[in-house]
Amino acid sequence: MEISHILNELGEDRSLYFNAVSPPIVQSSNFVFDTFEDLRKAFEDEDSAYLYSRGKNPTIEILRKKLAALDGAEDALVFNSGASAIFASVLANVGAGDHIVSVDKPYSWAWRMFDNMLPRFNVTTTYIDGTRIENFEKAILPNTRIIYLECPNSNTFEMQDLEAVARLAKERGIITIVDNSYSTPLHQKPISLGIDLSLQSATKYLGGHSDTVAGVLTGKKDMLQKIFNEQLLNNGSGISPFNAWLILRGLRTLPVRLQHITKTTEKVIGFLKNHPKIERVIFPFDENFPQIELARKQLSGACGLLTIVLKADSHEAIERFTYSLKHFLVAVSWGGHESLILPQAAGIAPETFDPTIEKHRMARMYLGLEDADYLIQDLEQALTVL
Ligand SMILES: *Cc1c(COP(=O)(O)O)cnc(C)c1O
């Protein structure tokens, strides 16, 4: 299906709402029933009719159709955060005594769930370097139920060969889940590579304006129905109609935003790589990226998020550089219109900062919708303080 059709037309029926171009925010908690029979059917399957907006809602329904189609998946669920999409996908598929294999350094709240919450229910997790398929083979136990992936990983962008991991998991009857926030379905298609469940923080590129927190999960209908009934309805973790509408609005411009950011990123990386104060740039499409071959095979693009290693000898120098930037905001998250910087040093106490540890000199950068030259000039002046 063409992306233009998905983003501009799919799931929308203007004759239902006064021929309005923009779909309405159906800001209603509950829906009226004309017969006992209809009501009984809705009780039996809450995803079959509009009953109550914790489950199904017309505005959210439009978004579900578009997100499922973007991923080439049978169905999509939309959550009130990426974290709740992660939580629901995992919790629906493990029971007491089960085991999970996860890539190293998954998104921080996935990590906390694996380390702090699931052990209380006797669910254990083994972390592996996901860049090698042998590591998955070695870590799988008879009670492994889930392989949890994040591709590319946060900060240093390690990748997994999704097709190979999916094949291995299928042989062993294990469910695969991947966090695809970095790439979006425009640049990586996990479902077509055989992954069972693909999730994203819709807060990032899908929303695109830094004004909404949301998450999406796609996959086969039967798997998602189980998650809808056991997790989304029970936890009340579905998105609200207004936030669903904001994501719908963000989706309209997703391809042009990514195209623009791709060009900006190329230009800014070109500048950074030639700057004497930058030791190296970590980015999946950089020629020095260790998995460049896999990146070229599996991703149709990468943009916006990259990591720089600064040549800096003190915590103070990194802080001074960071706050000399006029157009990069110091904030978490990414995927919006505004460029951001998040140095590792910000999370390290000055007395424990050690410049011989490369990680301490790393800074994650996100390039937003500003012009490349505007950002380069800013970086140029700020780097002079290092
Ligand atoms: C932000 C993020 C999440 C969590 O999403 P929220 O919408 O903030 O809950 C998960 N994975 C990755 C890679 C992220 O960047």
Automatic annotation (TrEMBL):
A Pfam family this chain is assigned to: Cys_Met_Meta_PP
Assigned EC number: 5.1.1.1
Cofactor entry: pyridoxal 5'-phosphate
Annotated TM spans: none
Record keyword Isomerase present: yes
Keywords for this protein: Isomerase, Pyridoxal phosphate
Keyword Isomerase: yes
GO molecular function per UniProt: alanine racemase activity
Stored InterPro entries: Cys/Met-Metab_PyrdxlP-dep_enz, Cys_met_metab_PP, PyrdxlP-dep_Trfase, PyrdxlP-dep_Trfase_major, PyrdxlP-dep_Trfase_small
Family recorded in the similarity comment: Belongs to the trans-sulfuration enzymes family.
PANTHER family noted in UniProt: CYSTATHIONINE GAMMA-LYASE, TRANS-SULFURATION ENZYME FAMILY MEMBER
Protein name: L-alanine/L-glutamate racemase
The organism of origin for this protein: Dyadobacter linearis
Gene: aar
